[in-house]
Structure of Dihydrofolate reductase:
Amino acid sequence: MMRELVYYAAVSIDGYIAGPAGEFDAFPVEGDHMQHLNARFADAVPTHIADALGIERDGTTFDTVVMGWNTYAVGLPVAPSPYRHLRQFVFSRTRSEADIPGEHPNLTLTDEDPVAVVRRLKAEPGASIWLCGGGALATVLAEEIDRLVLKRNPLLFGDGIPLFAPGAYRPRAFEEVATTAYESGVVVSEYVRRPSI
């Protein structure tokens, strides 16, 4: 069975995953939603944060993460290998290894076509592949996304980086398989791609 590409992301109620300059600190990191998410998606917690909080990761949800350069660069220079417990693929046509400070275990910086890389990864054995962001990469990989897990936060950004960057209009059908509303106001919804007819 081919493994899934899962777009798991926090999003404002007006559809932004970050502010205009990549800000994401408005998203709540406390509340009743956090325990559930840290348990179910422990593999998506940055390695240094999970270590500090004692969050166990076993690689059964995700064993690989893909992201664009801007998403990756949020942690620099503190975390040059933010998810070193996973195989990390960072896509950039303009950056080189010289732009990554220090050591960066399990990280591959590539200018390869993201669709080709993801298709190759899907054909390998393993757990799901996490699409961490950003919106431009999500648009490029839209046809490869098998599952969406959206953490909708009770915030209006008004502007910023959208969940999907503008692209060619082509409706894609997904089916809601789970939604949980938390007292924090965060609503987590999960969708799977409907098979093409």
About this structure: The first strand starts at residue 5 and ends at 12.
